Amino acid sequence: MRTPLILLLATTLAACTVTPPAAAPTPTAATGSPTPTPVIPDQLRPITGAQVCAAVPEALRVSLVRSDTLSDEIDWSNNVATATQVWGQCQWYFGGPRSLRVTVQAYGTATQTATDHAKQKFDKSKADAAKLAEEPDALGWTYTPPVAADHGDAAYSLTGTRTGQSGRSDSRYVHMHIRQGPWQISIRYQGEERDDKLPAEAELRRGADQVAEVFTAEMAKDPSTVAPNDSGLCGAISAADVTSAFFPSVTEVSSSGDADDTACTWKIRDRLGQTDEVVETGGYCGIGVIQVENIAPRCGDLRIYVNNVGRRGHRELKTGGWDAKARRYAKDAPVKHLTGLGDRAFAFADQVHVLAGDYLIQLSYDGTNTGGGVRDAPGYQEPYLDESALRKSLIRIATIFVSGLPAHE
Questions:
Q1: Which among 339, 356, 363 has a CA at the least distance from the CA of 246?
Q2: How far apart are CA 98 and CA 83, in angstroms?
Q3: Between the CA atoms of 53, 56, 58 and 63, what dihedral angle is there, to the nearest 10 degrees?
Q4: Are 353 and 346 in contact (CB under 8 A)?
Q5: Is 230 in contact with 48 (CB distance < 8 Å)?
Q6: pLDDT above 80: residue 312
Q7: Which of 29, 47, 60, 408 is 20 to 30 A from residue 97's alpha carbon, by CA?
């Protein structure tokens, strides 16, 4: 869902005028390329994925995506907002009888405001949507032509229906795309076939309209009056805390979980070779890093898994169960017991485990944490994982995270 951006660069060519002799013909002055005029960026609200989730009233959410048919799991993600780039996303129960995904995003550059970019992207998206209606895609989806909707500054919706191998339609969704000031709002409300019934287009469109009303009101709020917030478990530590323990810098935060289990992920990327442009790249570093040929960036994902063992009744972990857990790990590699961290804690290989009240916490990191940079520089080393440095980083993160956890239930 990330939208590619083009950062326009230009070089000013000096115009030179020569005063000729009186008898000579007057030469034409050289014409230089105009320098793009910097724009005043739109003030963007740095909304988080957690806030996107929270913006949907519970009564509306329950009426559209009932958790009793699947689980109460919710996924969200967001970038670490900059002055010109912000996005947040929430997804409820993907794959269930009903699922809902909402993305809000705004992107600008040094020479294009987020509002102008939103207009440009909206027009292109609508034109692309019209082409979708011409024929089914390779996966069996057919689409209706885009229909104008009365939301925000401009909006349209379309319906996609998939035909399975049996020749019967088995999935349908309504997608709504809204432009509101600098914001692009995307809503996808989907239903799967259950008991030989496929949700009607009218039902899905009504649901998408209800969510659209919520988010046009939400994103119309004055950005100076709304601060980014994550009141969930992932909010126990900030992106700045993670950056301080690893290397610059966190580019994206995400979470998946329910009442019992939460998984938080921070994508950490070197800024080497990175520009305002957001580009899909190959290799481990993923989105957000421009792969400059002579630069090797470090990158990795910090993950924190939190189990509320109190809610699940696993009280034995507070007694002999914790020691048994450590002994199981010790069969594969040395276990180092830690003091001053939660109630009990140990480090194992590239992991740190903590028991703090009713929370069982596991921290891990996949990626590199040292080396990298310009390949031709003196003393250059390919990016690699320093396990000793990693352990120190994980222990530091664990200490901050445990101290920031909400009160135990």
A1: 363
A2: 35
A3: -120
A4: yes
A5: yes
A6: no
A7: 47
Give the tens place of pLDDT for each residue, 85-99: 999 999 988 667 889
- Cα 401 to Cα 306: distance, rounded to the nearest angstrom: 11
357 and 307 in contact (C-beta within 8 Å)? no
Mean pLDDT score of the chain, rounded to an integer?
A: 83
Q: How far is CA 103 from the centre of its chain?
A: 9
Cβ–Cβ < 8 Å for 292, 255: no
Sign of CA dihedral 205, 211, 213, 216: negative
pTM, two decimals, is 0.81
Question: Per-residue pLDDT for 366 more than 60?
Answer: yes
Altogether, the residues listed in the chain come to a count of 409
Average pLDDT of the segment spanning 352-363: 93
Give the closest residue to 298 by CA, choosing from 242, 247, 345, 340: 247
Cβ partners under 8 Å of residue 315, min gap 6: 309
Asked if residue 266 lies in contact with residue 301, where contact means CB atoms within 8 angstroms, the answer is: yes
For position 97, what pLDDT does the model report? 83
pLDDT the model gives residue 317: 62
Q: Strand 351-356 and strand 344-348: pairing?
A: antiparallel
